[in-house]
């Protein structure tokens, strides 16, 4: 069953939400908390090791009721069934969307064209397990008989961002293998990385779903050339493995059949870290930890599939984000993890969220009349507090923000962790309450200011507050809790795509730039420059001079 094509703006719930927005838009979070005792507990979901508090949002019972009505009217329940059931919901590419099958249990059944794909998934998982264990233990060696010390993941977009984010996030669990990532076609990156490496002890993992991506193929060829300066063609089999759906192209590149890790067209690049695309993750943290990552994601899948919407974390966070995006017209959302380990988390989610829901055609092929994908950004706290939080507190933009924090630190430094978390809680409280003129006045008076001097300073010290946040507080950063956290955002993407009546799983928008780059490369490499606008021509002449 395809996803329905329901324009959300034509639903009763949407119209009621518009009215409700007009009536409540001036209400301050301070008032909501003052008038509703127990609001903090009421608007929170406790699930496994997660406490998700969405009470510091501009919403009431009525808002939630209407958002849930909207979810019903756009057919979210059936859409979830189609998603997990392997329907071809990526209609523009004629594919199912089954990253959830990558973390299914062995006895689960997910049918694609009548075949249970869970069996194939487990075959590849077995291969990831035996390969990663052999490399980590030193049983699998390089061409001179030495064990591997370094692993280089060569890939871009979904073939890079997931692996790099997770290996950084789970650094605490890493073994002795050093992982490196080469993504950008910028030759300075690959040459910088190669500077640190010994060809005799380095394993290269080429990851490209299509195996046609310019950046990845260029980097892989440069690296192979560098490798062959000290090794011979037959040694390539010991040092290069590939992850792709394009088995023909892998062969052309010279990768041995045994070194190929297949993937499937029903896994989107930006949702692929759970497949063999995550090989560098398994190499870096060991297979058992990789498996735990999948278990955590599977638990979140089941929560999303089975929990009533009002207690369902991805559904609630997705709908709350729709509330701000489409009614308050907030354009961006910030994601601020209070752990340095998650320093690539928002960069990873930028692809997941913006490549998925950055669409302007509805599912019937007409231009949408409402806003779709949010702009995602963020950096870890507390660093971000000293960078862009000024704008969040006193700027003119409304920026709904997710704060992600952990009860325990991994190295157990209680002193540091208490300070970190004090900042974590203080920021959401400050964003919500702000500081009133009366409070500022009192503070200035206590500092000895009065009269004209006080009045002059007063307006600059006022914080409006009323800035919405979600707090995701998790027991500990483990492979399992990270798996669940990533899956939470994956399902939030799905919820929003369904509401906005768009196709979340294609990415035609990145093609145009790729095509033009190919043509311009010809202009750069040849003596004559082809037809371009006057600005591009001028720039190309300057570049070539
Ligand atoms: O940026 C576009 C894109 O197609 C992404 O969706 C994908 O993750 C990335 O390029 C890399 O593609 P591939 O894995 O085929 O090299």
Automatic annotation (TrEMBL):
It is found in: Cytoplasm. It catalyses: alpha-D-glucose 6-phosphate = beta-D-fructose 6-phosphate. Belongs to the GPI family. Pathway: Carbohydrate degradation; glycolysis; D-glyceraldehyde 3-phosphate and glycerone phosphate from D-glucose: step 2/4; Carbohydrate biosynthesis; gluconeogenesis. The keyword Hydrolase does not apply. Its main location: cytoplasm. InterPro entries: G6P_Isomerase, G6P_Isomerase_C, Phosphoglucose_isomerase_CS, SIS_dom_sf, SIS_PGI_1, SIS_PGI_2. It comes from the Bacteria. GO terms for biological process: gluconeogenesis; glucose 6-phosphate metabolic process; glycolytic process. Catalyzes the reversible isomerization of glucose-6-phosphate to fructose-6-phosphate. Its EC number is 5.3.1.9. GO terms for cellular component: cytosol. The active site is at residues 355, 386, 514. Keywords: Cytoplasm, Gluconeogenesis, Glycolysis, Isomerase. It holds the Pfam family PGI. GO terms for molecular function: carbohydrate derivative binding; glucose-6-phosphate isomerase activity; monosaccharide binding. The gene is pgi. This is Glucose-6-phosphate isomerase.
């Amino acid at each position: 069953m395809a996803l329905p094509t329901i324009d959300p703006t034509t639903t009763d719930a949407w119209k009621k939400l518009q009215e409700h927005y007009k009536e409540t838009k001036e209400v301050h979070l301070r008032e909501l908390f003052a008038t509703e005792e127990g609001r903090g507990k009421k608007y929170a979901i406790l699930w496994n090791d997660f406490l998700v508090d969405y009470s510091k949002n501009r919403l009431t019972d009525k808002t939630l009721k209407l958002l849930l009505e909207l979810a019903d009217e756009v057919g979210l329940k059936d859409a979830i069934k189609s998603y997990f059931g392997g329907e071809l919901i990526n209609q523009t590419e004629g594919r199912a969307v089954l990253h959830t099958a990558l973390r299914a249990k062995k006895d689960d059944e997910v049918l694609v064209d009548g075949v249970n794909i869970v069996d194939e998934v487990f075959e590849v998982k077995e291969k990831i397990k035996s390969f990663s264990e052999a490399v980590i233990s030193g049983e699998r060696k390089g061409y001179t008989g030495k064990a591997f010390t370094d692993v280089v993941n060569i890939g871009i977009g979904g073939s890079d961002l997931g692996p790099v984010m997770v290996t950084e996030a789970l650094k605490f669990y890493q073994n002795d293998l050093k992982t490196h990532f080469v993504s950008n076609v910028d030759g300075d990156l690959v040459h910088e990385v190669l500077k640190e490496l010994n060809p005799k002890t380095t394993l290269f993992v080429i990851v490209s779903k299509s195996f046609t991506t310019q950046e990845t193929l260029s980097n892989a060829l440069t690296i192979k050339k560098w490798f062959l300066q000290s090794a011979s063609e037959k040694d390539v089999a010991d040092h290069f493995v590939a992850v792709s759906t394009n088995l023909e192209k892998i062969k052309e590149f010279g990768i041995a059949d045994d070194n190929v890790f297949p993937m499937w067209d029903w896994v989107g690049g930006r949702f692929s870290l759970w497949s063999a695309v995550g090989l560098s993750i398994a190499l870096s943290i060991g297979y058992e930890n990789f498996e735990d990552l999948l278990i955590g994601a599977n638990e979140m899948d089941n929560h999303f599939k089975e929990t009533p919407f009002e207690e369902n974390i991805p559904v609630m966070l997705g709908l709350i984000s729709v509330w701000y995006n489409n009614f308050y017209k907030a354009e961006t959302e910030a994601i601020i993890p209070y752990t340095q380990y998650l320093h690539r988390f928002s960069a990873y989610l930028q692809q997941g969220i913006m490549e998925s829901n950055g669409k302007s055609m509805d599912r019937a092929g007409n231009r949408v009349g409402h806003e779709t994908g949010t702009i995602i950004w963020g950096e870890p706290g507390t660093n971000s507090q000293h960078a862009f939080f000024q704008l969040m507190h006193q700027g003119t933009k409304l920026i709904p923000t997710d704060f992600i924090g952990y009860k325990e630190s991994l190295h157990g430094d209680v002193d540091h962790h208490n300070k970190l978390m004090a900042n974590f809680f203080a920021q959401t409280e400050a964003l919500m309450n702000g500081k009133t003129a009366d409070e500022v006045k009192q503070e200035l008076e206590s500092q000895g200011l009065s009269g004209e001097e006080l009045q002059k300073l007063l307006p600059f010290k006022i914080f409006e507050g009323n800035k919405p946040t979600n707090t995701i507080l998790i027991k500990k950063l483990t492979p399992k809790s990270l798996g669940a956290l990533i899956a939470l955002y994956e399902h939030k993407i799905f919820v929003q795509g369904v509401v906005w009546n768009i196709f979340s799983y294609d990415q035609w928008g990145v093609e145009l730039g790729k095509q033009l780059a190919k043509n311009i490369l010809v202009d750069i490499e040849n003596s004559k420059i082809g037809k371009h606008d006057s600005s591009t021509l001028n720039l190309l002449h300057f570049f070539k001079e």
